[in-house]
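Work package 3, deliverable 3.1, input record:
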Amino acid sequence: MATALNINGETYESQSHPDTPLLWVLRDELGLTGTKFGCGIGACGSCTVHVNGQAQRSCQLPVGSVAEAVTTIEALGGDEAMPAVHAAWIEHQVAQCGYCQSGQQMQAASLLSSNPNPTDADIDEAMNGNLCRCGTYPRIRAAIHTAAKMLAEG
Amino acid sequence: MGRVAKIARRTFLIGSVAVAGGVAFGVYKMLEAAPNPLGSTEDEISLNAFVVITKDGVTLISPKAEMGQGVHSTWAALIAEELDVDLDQITVIHGPPAKAYYNSALFGLVLPFDDYKVSEWQQAVRKFAGNGAKLLSLQLTGGSTSMRDGFERMRHAGATAREVMKQAAAKRWDMRAGDLTTQSGQVIAPDGKSLTYFELAEDAADINPPRVALRDPSEWRLLGKSLPRLDMPEKVLATATFGIDVRLDGMKYASVRMNPARQGMRRFDASAAEAFPGVERVLDMGEGVAVVASNTWAAMQAVEAIDVSWEPSIYPRTTKALFDEIDRAFDEEHDTEARKIGNVEAQHQGTEISAEYSVPYLAHATMEPMNATALFEDGKLWVWCGHQAALSGLNACAEEAGIEPENVTFETTLMGGGFGRRGETDFAVLAVRAAKQMPGVPIKLTWSREEDMRRDLFRPAARARMRGVVNDGKPVVADVAFAASSVVLQTMARPPVEPMTQETAAVSGADAEGLSGAHDQPYAIPNYRVRGHVVKSALPIGYWRAVGASYGGFFFDSFIDEMAVAAGRDPLEFRLDMAREEDAASALALEKVAEMSGWTAARAAGRAMGVGFTYSFGAPVAQVIEVEDEAGLVRIKKAWIAADLGIALDPGNIEAQLTGGCLFGLSAAVMGEITFDDGAIEQYNFTDYDALRMATAPRFEVAVLENSRYIGGVGEIGTPPAPAALGNALFALTGQRVRDLPFNKAFDFV
């Protein structure tokens, strides 16, 4: 019952049971630990990856159902907006404990792909599913605006 | 005697610096050097317990756990400032658990002084008291003590290392050390020739460290500036290794389910679990069960499927019964009287008010659920986890494995939040309990979010009974009594993993910590008494960000707001009058927050502001919160924070801690509540134990002040005033005074 996966442009065969959430295939089977476990029920956003360019909670995706290309935080520049997101996150010194930040950045990159110049309200709406217990929200918001500017200026 | 031993004996600088003060023998014994935990290998020469000079630069060994507060970066800057190395030459790693890393500031916190009144003499006594922590093996990151602990110690470490480098170079060149300079990890002679620290390190290790004066702050290159955090790139690129990311050859994945009522297990039937794909072993964990599987998800699913019969709780089984237990503590004589000024019981002229307040139990809910990895093989144990108190973690794991501590290797990883939860040892001990049953196999034991909540060690629920008298616009009486379980006393009595017993619950004694935020406030109140009643409950509780001040700040400051209203005064002016007489820095913080928030300006309809003030962990923090009626829903619109740190070592990081601490307090105030039924908690995940999010968090404006005489802690101080400021704002908006948290039981928020 192997599942063929395309992750960050590479092909993998998962031997895990098809019901196993993509999150745990990434972390435990493939060793891609940048994607984090936070709640297991899609309520915190720590496990956000891109499937076919869209932000998805990988803890809610049975690996057997994943047919399209997956991008994780490990794909440096694998997403158009990601280099700008990383740069803005460092410029604004966003992370505290850092645990939720891979999910936050994946969500932010997905937002910027569909909305290159988001307002504060757009950011609030897009990012509201990503919990941060350290309270880095003010810097996340500022970093998304900066990343949007970087992308606009090329 | 080998070279490493010589280095250890000669270069231990904590001892030499402290002994110079000239003290009695008993204290001297405490100050004797603890063994240097860092051996030297060919390529690394250990200079003292905190600095390792390598070919590539300098590795700073941080005994402090990095859980998001930026301690590694600021400790690096403290040493680098004196050692004259560049930030990009520095690597920071978690040190091995060792007595050399005791937390000197922590013991100062339990002394019965009002922080803001600390005199030079008291400051000196505190330093001695701090050495008691060494005897108790407290390598602890907590109590907002890192900067107070390290501010002088780390600079001395850097300065001493720099001076022995200069002496080593002077000897090599036959010059005077005083003629040499240091820069970027090199000693430089007047003629321009240079030697790197690495080239000099071996000679330097044989030199007795001199006593060196620290540089004046006016000479600082790094301290006092917002520096890029050293851990930022790896956290942004997600290459940082948290405990949950540890991977070892042949590692198996496990999850655990322990009795949610904190008692034993009668029996279990694992047949349903064994049928799960990927399941390899079911383990009897004493008071619970664990499943070892090919991946964590399989282990979590299977462990929940085990049919278990639990022993019932010995603590009251419902929230109401738990609060009844709290209320009964008021019937007993008080255990602590942490402040007594004037006579609160005498007849005083004026308006009298009284009120009861309560706060619920709270979970820590760190983003990274509890986890640890352990390998038990040939009588030796290896443990990897994020831990706030590595030495006590190591000792608890050794005891669980039944081996001596010297046979345990304990590696501290980064942690996805701590908030006090990772100062406990249960999660590490349980990984050892599993690994012991599968010798030679590394076991990563990860708790589900549900297990993380139901087996949390909760912030205690508490009740306050307060009485106040005001007259002629001024405070006359503040008579305050709290009832709560004592975190300090219970954590000392409780074994790493329960079952709780009536004996461990029935701890008694005075606990001034549990009255923080109330007994230690810089307010001139002529009759001011604060008493504590310790609730002897078998419900497990633990350290939670700001500990006693997390509820003491809410109780006391909210009641001060009520007194201001009763006195017919502006609430901020009322506080300011009281603070001016006691502590200038506190008054200046209140003035600053008034100015920033436009406190005296007219407010738009449907908007209101509340002020909150708490002095905790050596720092006064004033907050103003603005709320808005948004079509019948309350929006927390903006928060202004003015905090006085005495010396602001890294303003950017301090601002992050203050806003984060405030949000942590606001989340708890709006929606945080753990309730009980049938002995187990009723909340299981972020759906029913949530926190503020991007769209519901306020905007922030922060001022970091430096008027205080001593350096304050920063990790917790943003939390205590936030619930009070919000409650006071809600009162200003609605006229309704809500005295029981969380506020979402009385108001609907956006």
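Residues 666 and 723 of chain B are 6 Å apart (CA to CA).
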